[in-house]
Amino acid sequence: MGKPVTGLGEADLDDLCARWPGATRSIKWEVDLVWSVANKMFVVYCTLGPDRGRLSFKVDSDRFLELSAQPGMAPAHYMARAFWISVTEPERYTRDELAGFVRRSYELVRANLPKKTQAALGDGE
């Protein structure tokens, strides 16, 4: 068995999120790749500059303090009050761990959409 693959790149994020119902991709603030569901962000990936590779996403409120205290993670700038975490050192985490966090973020954001909007999205993986 080889060493687990760490980090989550732009192409990995695209492959992951493109499969989910209602998920859309955009570039915001000129440098951030953003995936949203019904125009509500669930993950932000910095594509340029000193924060390149930084990944931010929503987490369960009861896990926010635990996760923000982990090495390589911190409360997300401007979004911490909404229980968002930034992975400042993505190389510390396996691709599968990060993909799980992104999937959970999608689920949390989708669950907060109006029921009619959720129903219109249909079922996904």
Task: Set out the fold topology.
Blueprint: H1 10-17, E1 23-28, E2 32-37, E3 40-46, E4 55-58, H2 64-68, E5 73-75, E6 84-87, H3 95-111, H4 115-121
Antiparallel strand pairs: 1-2, 2-3, 3-4, 4-6, 5-6
What would you note in describing this structure?
The protein has 125 residues and is of the alpha+beta class. The chain has 4 helices and 6 strands. The chain has a single domain, classed as Aspartate Aminotransferase, domain 1 (Alpha-Beta Complex), CATH 3.90.1150.
Give the strand order of the largest sheet, numbering strands 1, 2, ... along the chain.
1-2-3-4-6-5
Query: Number of DSSP strands?
Result: 6
Please state the second-level CATH architecture.
Answer: Alpha-Beta Complex
- First-last Cα distance: 28 Å
Provide a short characterization of the protein structure.
With about 120 residues, the protein is an alpha+beta fold.
Features:
125 residues; alpha+beta; Aspartate Aminotransferase, domain 1; 6-stranded antiparallel sheet; 4 helices
